Description:
Radius of gyration of chain A: 20 Å
Largest sheet of chain A: none
CATH class of chain A: Mainly Alpha
Structural class of chain A: mainly alpha
Number of strands of chain A: 0
Oligomer: homo-oligomer of 14 chains
Amino acid sequence: MDSVTIIAVASIITAGLTTGIGCMFPALSEGKAVSAALGSISQQPDAAPTITRTLFVGLAMIESTAIYCFVVSMILIFANPFWNFIVQ
Amino acid sequence: MDSVTIIAVASIITAGLTTGIGCMFPALSEGKAVSAALGSISQQPDAAPTITRTLFVGLAMIESTAIYCFVVSMILIFANPFWNFIVQ
Amino acid sequence: MDSVTIIAVASIITAGLTTGIGCMFPALSEGKAVSAALGSISQQPDAAPTITRTLFVGLAMIESTAIYCFVVSMILIFANPFWNFIVQ
Amino acid sequence: MDSVTIIAVASIITAGLTTGIGCMFPALSEGKAVSAALGSISQQPDAAPTITRTLFVGLAMIESTAIYCFVVSMILIFANPFWNFIVQ
Amino acid sequence: MDSVTIIAVASIITAGLTTGIGCMFPALSEGKAVSAALGSISQQPDAAPTITRTLFVGLAMIESTAIYCFVVSMILIFANPFWNFIVQ
Amino acid sequence: MDSVTIIAVASIITAGLTTGIGCMFPALSEGKAVSAALGSISQQPDAAPTITRTLFVGLAMIESTAIYCFVVSMILIFANPFWNFIVQ
Amino acid sequence: MDSVTIIAVASIITAGLTTGIGCMFPALSEGKAVSAALGSISQQPDAAPTITRTLFVGLAMIESTAIYCFVVSMILIFANPFWNFIVQ
Amino acid sequence: MDSVTIIAVASIITAGLTTGIGCMFPALSEGKAVSAALGSISQQPDAAPTITRTLFVGLAMIESTAIYCFVVSMILIFANPFWNFIVQ
Amino acid sequence: MDSVTIIAVASIITAGLTTGIGCMFPALSEGKAVSAALGSISQQPDAAPTITRTLFVGLAMIESTAIYCFVVSMILIFANPFWNFIVQ
Amino acid sequence: MDSVTIIAVASIITAGLTTGIGCMFPALSEGKAVSAALGSISQQPDAAPTITRTLFVGLAMIESTAIYCFVVSMILIFANPFWNFIVQ
Amino acid sequence: MDSVTIIAVASIITAGLTTGIGCMFPALSEGKAVSAALGSISQQPDAAPTITRTLFVGLAMIESTAIYCFVVSMILIFANPFWNFIVQ
Amino acid sequence: MDSVTIIAVASIITAGLTTGIGCMFPALSEGKAVSAALGSISQQPDAAPTITRTLFVGLAMIESTAIYCFVVSMILIFANPFWNFIVQ
Amino acid sequence: MDSVTIIAVASIITAGLTTGIGCMFPALSEGKAVSAALGSISQQPDAAPTITRTLFVGLAMIESTAIYCFVVSMILIFANPFWNFIVQ
Amino acid sequence: MDSVTIIAVASIITAGLTTGIGCMFPALSEGKAVSAALGSISQQPDAAPTITRTLFVGLAMIESTAIYCFVVSMILIFANPFWNFIVQ
């Protein structure tokens, strides 16, 4: 195996696993937050606007961690400095 | 094994595992959200429209993490830059 | 092992595992949603139509993640671009 | 090991594991749904027909994920395109 | 190791593990369903016939996933197409 | 290692593990069912006959999955077709 | 390593692990059943004979799965057909 | 490594692990039973003799699974038929 | 494999895994905090401003641990001193 | 590595692990029993003598499983028949 | 692989994993503390200043363990004595 | 590697792991017992002497399992019969 | 690999993992203690000084275990006797 | 690798892991004890002196298991008899 191949393989596997692993817990966490929001609305329907607003801010924060992982995957696939160095 | 084979194998395995792993927790999470929504409706039937609307927004957010993984798999299968470089 | 064999083996194993792993949590999740629906119906029989409708929308969303995995398996078995490139 | 043997072995192991793993969680999930149905019937005997009907729809949905895995196993054993290509 | 031996070994191990793994969760699940049925009977003795009938339908569904695994094991031991191809 | 030895070893290990793994969850599950039965009897002593009868049917169903595993082990030890083919 | 040694080693390890693993969950399960029985007796001292009798039947069923494993271990140590074939 | 060494090593490791693993869950289970007995006595001091008697029968049953493992270990160390065959 | 390749591969894999693993628990934790906030708002709507403010401070603290991991990944990809030493 | 060394190494590692693993759950279990005893005493101070006596019998039973493991370790270190055979 | 490469690789991997692993539980723990604080505020709004102050002290203590790991990573990347010894 | 080295290495690793693993659950268990004692004292301050005495007996029993592991480690480091045999 | 390199690598990896692993549970544990303190303050605001003081003593004890690990890491990096022996 | 290097490496890794693993559960356990103490104080502020005293005795017992591990690590680093034998 030459260097080009090894770095390509490592980038492919890492990109896939980073997104695969990194999206697990944000998904779990958003489900938890949505469940709590639904329970809260059914318990206190009058506070629905406040609950919804807090939920969306929270979902944005949680989604951000999933996006970090997605960004790292995209960097490894399309803007990988090690790959650029090797294939020059 | 030549370079073409290795990169093809790595892409196949990574594409499968990324979707396989990455769909686990979104599914779990959507089940949790749906369960909470059903519990909330049965507890407060009058708030059903608000609950349903919040549920659908939440499911869309959760589904988005599964779709990130699916997108990475599709990129690895059909638009893999490392594969394109090798098979040129 | 020549290239054709390796890619075939990788495709077979990945296709099986992707479906096998990817169907675990949707199944678990649907069971959770159905359980919640049954509990809700027994608690509030009058809301059965709303509950059933929300349940079916939720099951469709959850089933979709299982279908992503099944689709990736089918692509790997019957429309694998790497295999097509090799066996040309 | 020649190509025929390797692909046969990979198909056998994958077929077995796909069914073995893929049937775990549907079974667990059906048990959960049945338990919830039994609890609901004992709590609200009058709603038994609605509960039973919803249970059967839910069991069918859950069983479908087990059947995806069984179908993939059967394809790998009896309609494996890679095997057909090799043994031609 | 010649091809016959390898395929025999793979079939033996896979057949054993498929049944071994595949019977774990159906057993767990049936235990759950039976427990729920017993709890429901003690809570609502008048609904015992409905509960028993629903239990038996549910046990049949759950047992079916165990039987898929047992069937795959039996196919691998007594009607294995790869083995038949090799020993011809 | 010649073929006879390999197949013998694979059969021994698989037979042991199949029974060992396959008896874990039925045991757990029977314990759960018995516990539920005992709790139900103490809660509703008048329903003891119905509970006992349902318990025995349930234990028989659960035991059946343990017996599938035991049967596969016995087939692998005493009626193994691959072994018979090799030692002929 | 000659064949006799390999089969002896495989038999020793498998015999030990089968009993070791196979006795874990029956023990756990009997503990659960005994706990439930003790709780039931303290809750309903009048039903002690029925509880004790049901407990003993249940313990016998659970013990049976541990005994399957013990039997397989004993067969592998003292009546192993593969060993008998080899050392003839 | 000659045959005598290999079988001795396998016997040593298996004997240790069988006892080590096989004593875990009986210990856990006895702790559970004792806890339940203590809780029951504090809840219903009048039933102490019945509780104690049932506890001792249960502990004996649970201890028996630990003893199976201990017996297998002792057989492997002091009455190992494979070892006897080899060192003759 | 020459030194440049090895260090590149190690950096790629480590960068991906650090972000992938390091984002799991912050996401989980933020979901927990958001859930608690939503539950608290529905329970005590008057304290919403205090709750929201405390939530945002807490989310910032939790996000900081995810950012440590992201920073380490970025250092490994774009400002790696070992890589700079080697490629000089 | 000669036979003496291998058997010594296997004995050392097994002796350590058997005690290490085998003492985990008895410790856990005794903690559980002691906790239950303390809870029972605080709930029913009058039954303290009965509780203490039952606790000590239970602790003795649980300790016995830890002692089985300790005994096996001591046998492997100081009265190992395989070692004695080899170093003769 | 020469010494420089090996030490560089070990430093890269260790630095990444130390931060990745070491940030998991502090994040989890801060989420727990924040959740508890939010629950406490909603339960006792008058004690909000005391709660907030105690929360911040606690978060600082928890964050300190994450910072130990971050510090070790930074030492391994930028002030590694072993690296400095080798590249002299 | 000569025999002296191997046995030294095995003794070092085993001694460390035995203490490391063997101290985990006693610590956990003592924490549980202390927690129960504290809860019992706050619930029934009058029974504090009895609770404290029972706690100390229990802690002594639990500590004894940790000490078995520590003793085995010390034997392996300072009174290892295999080491003494080799270095004679 | 020469001795200097090996010992450097082992020291780097061990130092990182010891801190990484050793900081996990103290962090978890401090989060638990802080949560309990916050819950206690909200429940009994008058006892806040006693609670805070006990909390700080407890955090110091817990932090000490994290510091043991940090100290071992620092010893391995900056005062390693094995390294000093080798590089003399 | 010569003997000195191997023993040094084994000592380094074991010393680190023993402290790293061995400090996990004591930390967890102390957190549990502190939490219980805080809960008890808030529930029964009058018993604070007794609770605090029992807590400190308990923490000392728990800390002792962490110290056993730390002592073993220190022995392996600074008073290792195997190392002393080799480097003489």
